Amino acid sequence: MKITIIGSGLLGLSTGYHLAQEGHQITIVERRKDSALETSFANGGLLTPSLCEPWNAPGVLFDLLKWIGREDAPLLLRPKALPSLFLWGLSFLRSSTRRRYEENIFRNFRLAKYNLAVLEEMASNIPLSELGGGAGVGTIKLCRQMEELDEVHKMAEFLSPENICFKTLDKNEIFALEPALKPLGDKVAGGSYFPEDRFGDAHQFCAELTKYLINNGVQFLFNTNVINMKKKGDHVCEIDTEQGSLSADTFIIAAGSYSTIIADTVGVKIPVKPCKGYSLTLEPDGWTGAPKIPVIDQSLHAAVTPLGPKIRVAGTAEFTGYDVSLHEDRLQNLYNLLGSIFPESRPYINHETTKKWSGLRPVSASGVPIISQTEIKNLYLNTGHGQIGWTTAAASGKALSDLICQKEAGINISDYSLPK
Ligand SMILES: Cc1cc2nc3c(=O)[nH]c(=O)nc-3n(C[C@H](O)[C@H](O)[C@H](O)COP(=O)(O)OP(=O)(O)OC[C@H]3O[C@@H](n4cnc5c(N)ncnc54)[C@H](O)[C@@H]3O)c2cc1C
């Protein structure tokens, strides 16, 4: 079958890989000059089944109102984005009942756990250094307050029936595991260690996967912006790009936050909105005590991930439409977070050489990725992965490939259907 995939980020590439393995003829259409130059470029680097909760926890409305106008808020709503968020926002809030929230945690967790198995299979087949030698295992969730510690433990216990692996740590055990945290001393209440979590550079993974796919017959059309899709009867017959039209038997939209705009051209509505996040990538030359394990600070809502000689600090979430401009106060916020988690990093932070980045998480209203056929039979979606796109990309690609190829899936695919 001739299959065209729109988008060459984590989701488009992973879907392309699995469908190519099934013998299909794949074309990946990407508006940028290469793969993974948008949201999959400089994310937090975490593949964390342990961190799969959707953002719409019970009480999220109260939190959002409380955080309005606070530049250091973990989830910030900009007033200019409010009109575009109205319908999606209602659905986001509807998913924040205790029952739905808990069901959705399980959906995300199962996908993330399945992801580890799929990645292993991929790594045995193709040379992906970022899944092998270059990447690492384990994450620490660090808690500064006893209430946070209780929450982390409750969540881990809640996921126990799904066999989450975790170890509760007191502060001395944390310092033994990650000595770079020692200077925090009594500020630490405790935490947890998740040995199954992984970390690695998503952009490098995408670069290596692209190379492999090109060498294995997948066609890439870079610098090709998709303008719209065309429907004939009950199927999509072609897509219009700035370079001309393309036909295929099956089309997949994996264009991150822009999936909604493309799908809209054939009347398919996807409940996904962009949520901006920032990252800093530093090379702290001379800092011999730099961390070796990613640390997620529960109080500060930030993650610090070692990626070889680099340190990635990621965090902040802000609904501000499709704006990816960098704001000094949000960047400063990340520098402050790094200094608060690793006080010894301060002398080694060089603002000039630090790479500053922002990207748009494609956040679905339910907080669960959409891996689905649409009401148009030959049009499929792989989007809405929000803050867990790296954590679930490989499994999402495999799941969509199995759905299209009508093979038995490793997960219950109906859990990820486009809501009617
Ligand atoms: C600050 C931050 C930190 C994060 N940290 C983590 C983390 O630690 N762990 C984790 O699991 N996830 C994390 N994420 C989320 C993760 O990065 C995303 O979920 C994931 O990258 C989404 O991948 P994607 O393929 O859907 O989108 P993208 O990577 O954006 O890919 C979509 C592609 O489609 C292309 N495209 C769009 N429109 C068109 C068009 N009209 N024509 C042609 N091409 C088009 C784009 O150019 C782009 O290349 C983070 C996100 C952010 C912003």
Automatic annotation (TrEMBL):
Pfam families: DAO
MF (Gene Ontology): D-amino-acid dehydrogenase activity
Annotated ranges, domain FAD dependent oxidoreductase: 3-403
Protein name: FAD dependent oxidoreductase domain-containing protein
Family: Belongs to the DadA oxidoreductase family.
Cellular component GO terms held in the UniProt record: cytoplasm; plasma membrane
Keywords: Oxidoreductase
Organism of provenance: OM182 bacterium MED-G28
BP-aspect Gene Ontology terms: D-alanine catabolic process
UniProt keyword 4Fe-4S present: no
InterPro entries assigned to the protein according to its UniProt record, in alphabetical order: FAD-dep_OxRdtase (IPR006076), FAD/NAD-bd_sf (IPR036188)
Highest taxon listed in the record's lineage: Bacteria
